[in-house]
Amino acid sequence: RNMSSAGPEGRKKMRECDGLIDSLVYYIQGAIADHEPNDKATENCVCILHNLSYQLEIELPESYAQSIYVQRRNISSNDKTPGCFGTRSRKVKEKHQDTPLPEEKSNPKGVESLWHSTLIRIYLSLIAKSTRNYTQEASLGALQNLTAGTGPMPFSVARTVVQKANGLPSIRTMLHVSHPAVKKTAVSLLRNLSRNTSLQNDIAREVLPDLVAVLPESVPGSDVACETTASICYTLFNLTQSSSYNARLLLSADGLPKIIAISMNDSNMFSKASRAASVLLYSLWSHTDLHNAYKK
């Protein structure tokens, strides 16, 4: 677990180690089958896989890159030591073509397992069944890593999470846990998922009211809570930008007063959360058919 936090070279060596990833996946599958999702070894295994999925898209060997990607994006490879947890999301503002991956292998080996639907379902199972905060956060964080890039892989993983594996109910539950880091990672994952236009209506229907519910009444004091609030606003921005229906859903969930209050915070006019809320308000106003409802 410590070694998997050692930066790009450490991750590369561990991904290439014959049988290592397969063994970690095998252990977690056994723990879930034995109804023991809370043991420390499972937490360690998930944290290692979480770290090995960090920047996976831009660190894949060329052989995978050629077979998987229709085109590679130029992404800065400036690396920060990731630890087991930490900021994972790439702030991608532009929309990218939703290109499917080639057909999945039925028996993935090694690094192929890291984005395979089998492991995605394992993460979702741990999110639902484990009561250990670190295991929940690492599972959410691994999915966040896998959906943070800009090529076909992140969008394919997002579709698996939302549509094939029905993962939104489990992620939604994590929005309401008391542990701030788990909540923050769940919101960051939803922000990544919400960039995929084909999934936005599914996400809005399932979790938009919950996102509004966990918004604070004003800009929060702590850094983690402030970052979470900003992420919620940007997720809501993604969900409502092109959909008047979803904007109305936000309105009916009583989101507007909260967003206005966050955007007008006097104590720190340039905070992340205030700025994100202002961007969301500006976007909501573009739905001219809702102006009368807004004014009311």
Coarse morphology = elongated
Rounded average pLDDT: 87
How do the helices and strands follow one another from N- to C-terminus? HHHHHHHHHHHHHHHH
Please identify the structural class as seen in this structure. mainly alpha
Termini separation = 54 Å
Q: Count the E strands.
A: 0
Largest sheet: none
Determine the oligomeric state from the structure: single chain
Q: Any idea how many domains?
A: 2
Helix fraction bin: 55-70%
| Uncertain regions spanning at least 5 consecutive residues | 70-82, 86-98
Radius of gyration: 19 Å
Beta strand %? under 5%
Number of helices: 16
Can you offer a commentary on this structure?
The protein has two domains: 1-64 and 109-177; 196-295. The termini are far apart. The longest helix has 18 residues, at 223-240. The protein has 16 helices and no strands. It is elongated, with a radius of gyration of 19 Å. By secondary structure, the protein is mainly alpha-helical. Belongs to the beta-catenin family. Residues 95-107 have a biased composition (Basic and acidic residues). Residues 80-109 are annotated as: Disordered. It is found in: Cell junction. It comes from Tyrannus savana.
In short:
The chain is mainly alpha-helical.
SSE layout:
Layout: H1 8-16, H2 20-33, H3 40-52, H4 56-59, H5 62-68, H6 117-129, H7 133-146, H8 152-164, H9 168-174, H10 180-193, H11 200-214, H12 223-240, H13 244-252, H14 255-263, H15 272-285, H16 291-295
Helix pairs in contact: 2-3, 2-6, 3-7, 6-7, 6-9, 7-10, 10-12, 11-12, 12-15, 14-15
List keywords for this structure.
single chain; 296 residues; mainly alpha; 2 domains; 60% helix; elongated; cell junction
